[in-house]
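Case study B.
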Amino acid sequence: MTYAIGDQVALRQVFGETLVELGGLYPDLLVLDGDLANSTLADQFAQAYPDRFLAMGIAEQNMAGTAAGLATLGFIPWISTFAVFAAKRDLDQVRVVIAQPALNVKIQGAYSGLLTGFTGKTHQSAEDIAVFRAMPNMTVLAPADATEARLAMHAATVHRGPVYLRMTRDPSPVIFGPDHRFEIGRGYVVREGRDVAIISTGVQTTRALEAAEILAAEGVSAHLLHVPTLKPLDEQAVVEAAARTGAVVTAEDHTIIGGLGGAVAEVLGERHPTPMRRVGLRDTFGESGPNEALLEKYGLTARHVAAAARELLKALGG
Amino acid sequence: MGPLDVATVEELKEIARRIRCLVLRSVHHAGAGHIGGPLSAAEILAVLYFRVLHIDPTRPDWPQRDRFILSKGHSAIGLYSALALRGYFPIEELNTFDAINSRLQGHPDMTLTPGVEMSTGSLGQGLSPGVGMALGARLRGLSFRTWVLLGDGEIQEGQVWEAAEVAARYGLDKLTAMIDYNGLPQFTWPDFGERGRQRPTSNLPAKWEAFGWRALEADGHDVESLLKSCALAQETVGRPSVIIAHTVKGRGVSFMENNFVWHAHPLSEEDLRRGLLELGEQP
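Model:
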């Protein structure tokens, strides 16, 4: 499956299609669904492989534990539910029976971030990166677009050990072509620049790319480092981006506390102290509303990312 | 006994007695640990590990082996004692229980201890991996059975009933839960008068039956009663089974029986001496 640059493709569509693709490649792959398959689009797998689709009902804690039991038999269980439930409703279960024994369970967090289809605070997941990043043995992924989401699912399936994969609900632009390569733990320079480095993750990278273009039109050369693996973080790439520009702006559809902004600040604080601004949710819950209105109100648009870069450069006397 | 021998009823009684002695010695040596729960589960563990489970201690990874999960993970020293007696590791290793760098952690760790099938210790979590193992066995075409030992206190956790619902929906008849029904959790409910002496009045067989399980009851300190219930569980078709084993917390040591203080408590030299003598062993 390939996706054309510029097309609008929903990552949940990619999730369903890629599960079917992976199902053909890996006979041990199972999908456990928390009664949301027609939202997450795991229903495509249910149709293709009904015997390997396990309905688990609205009971995420048991779903996590059941996945652990299946993993002990060599299966590759993919848990599929909303990010908000995957990261919190079953948190202790993931910690005790999946993360500590490092069992080979993949956790899909669908509907991550604020854009969850008019569902509001209970369904918006703005802490999942922070939660899973703090958990030993967990790998945390947040792909930027359809191309990368598919590759990340392949990489997660092959990886031995627990993986959390955060994906968004609604269509977003494809920014990577068929030559894009994905490797767990690696950051990708999407655009080279010298004045300020924007470090972004997940679908927010599509807005960061737009921000870089806004800045370019103003004569500001922005470097864009995309970090689809939150853990293990590509520390070297982060340090290099900071060293080359001396100014770093992070961008994520997640709280800046413990998310990408927190992770980058931790690395730079120890290895290459650099002035920073963090764009993301600022210690607040969301609400229901249209996508564009939410991005605007909570400061997540490309313009907000560009403004943060501008303000940082001004503070540095640039 | 060799690794594949089956124990007689008399031998099972003796094994339960030895499990109790090892629990006391290990907790005394460690200077801390849970006692009441491991003592109430001694016959259950003896019956499972020396008669019911199809296992081979020389091959802990044998794919066809029956699975056992100790959901009430704080009774780890009871499990370790049974595993050591069964030959999974040397009995002397029980002296490392709770010690730094030990394979015998305060709560079971499947990555460290031979024979431990699942990491547990956060209560209410063990039945769900059991559901996964039973489902997985069916998908793999393997005929092994999965046994999960729960405490009656931890079934207050909602996850247990999530697992019960899903196990029944999938008709997992190779899954059996056992409840060590000693009726005495750590601090118990405030309304029960003299703290912890009254059993919860909940009607457990009716609860499990309502969830679609076959509910069986046993005297948890009578190995023949346990063996009979296990046999009934093994021949159950089309639904999972639960054995509610009526037990006494702290069983076998008079001053520990039905006393919530001995849920977890350090053992003094004198406690150990008295306990072992009551269990018919020279300190």
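Chain A touches chain B through 30 residues (CB under 8 Å). The remaining cases will be described in the next quarterly update.
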